[in-house]
Amino acid sequence: MAGETPQSVEVVKVGFLGLSDGKREPEIVRVQLTSDSLVLQREETVYGNSLAAISTQVNNFDIDSNRERSVILRRQKSGGLGLSIKGGAEHNIPVLISRIFKDQAADQTGQLFVGDAIIKVNGVNVEHSTHDDVVQHLKNSPDDVKLTVRYYRAATPYLRAPAKRSRYSSETCNGNVAVADNDSGQSEWKTPPRSPTVPLTGGRYEKRWTNILTIPLAMAALTKYQTGTDKLRPNSFEVWGGDGVTSAVLHCNDITEVSEWCRVITTAIAAANATFIKLSNDTTSPLHQITHMGWLTERIGASRNWQNWKPRFVALRGEDMFLMDTPPISTRDWVRCDRIYKLHELMCKMNRDQEVLDDRLYCLSLQLATGESCYLSVETKEELTLWLGAIQTATHHAVRIIGRKTFGVSWQRRLAALTLDFTTGFTLYDGENKTVLWTYKFSQLKGSSDDSKSKIKLLFQSPNLRHIETQELECPNLQALLFSMHAFLSAKLAAVDPVFVRSLANMAV
After folding, report:
1. pTM given for the model
2. Residue 299: count of CB within 10 angstroms of its CB
């Protein structure tokens, strides 16, 4: 039946919610959440055969016979192909022959009937094409047109019904579009003869749930906030797909129902994203593996009297964090992204209650080595915990990828180079002859302090454990050095005691 979900797709949850576009009162729709999509369905009354009379289904199309027939039509100068068509993939049915004009090309073959579904045009499969696509195929065909058809029994009673019963907006006659209500012209309704293989049965009006919108869950987003603000929608939420298709607003009866729907949809989106990430990583270099991705909302140019929140697709990939307006579809999208930040050169922190800037409660801040910052929001505390952990994990992965990082510094009034090495720790090299001036393991660092400009003091435990050795450095890129030190130390600690590092991340929330 049109609107049903194929049995191979796992149905997670089904229910009835209100759907609105923000301009009209909500209408009741059936919402069906599967493992890979969110499907919105509207109940419609259609004229067709009894459901029991439909013998098979092919991709939601009610097909009565698997027997295909090939018929060659010779286009006439007057009258064209001599037939009209209705339907198409946008209506969840094949394109159908709706009229055959007496003594014209289609009628003269004696092999075409009202109710035939057009499967191929000159060998090109159009079974799942839209009405307009099939029209173009017919228009662009040579004078001899080869049609492959299959009889669609359930459509025959409908096609014989008065045009006012039509749920389709138009009918194509000989390659030209005519309004369906004008379906009163003289024509001969040719239907197949009665036989055991193609019986004709009476039709009746039936109520069916018809798909009106399908949102793929991979790289989709859910929000309970009104667009661009920190204000929650009362008992409602919005879901939009990574392809830009929006569901408008879905309304629930109460906060409990909203919470449950948001929970199951968010879980399904996370699972779909995880599947996408795995498929992508299976074919990607180890240097460009995706650790985590999804939608956050960024606060843009806000003040006390005005604010603007914009959705951002954030991906943690390789040694970088990407902030995008839309999800990446191709390799070129990654390259074209203009907001790419090195994970080891940024700091991520959760904004506590006294630090949030408005009514969005679950926020995190990114401080960049360049001095810039990003203020981002998520929907729930669980999402905030997930993102904090994901950024930490991705940063550790980034450190292992780069292995070492060197900064130009001055030490005791001489030029030098300070290298952070994931394996060996801190090493200072002479700026002229590259000789090693001193070296310490990460575990020897006992403290540090800086003037927030360029100077930093590093306190190391001496090798004999008897005293603290102080090394004073001056670095023109102090912020990047501090952030990189934090990333390397955290990654090293995670390699030694990952359970302890995870507990620190959970304590931050």
Report:
1. 0.67
2. 19
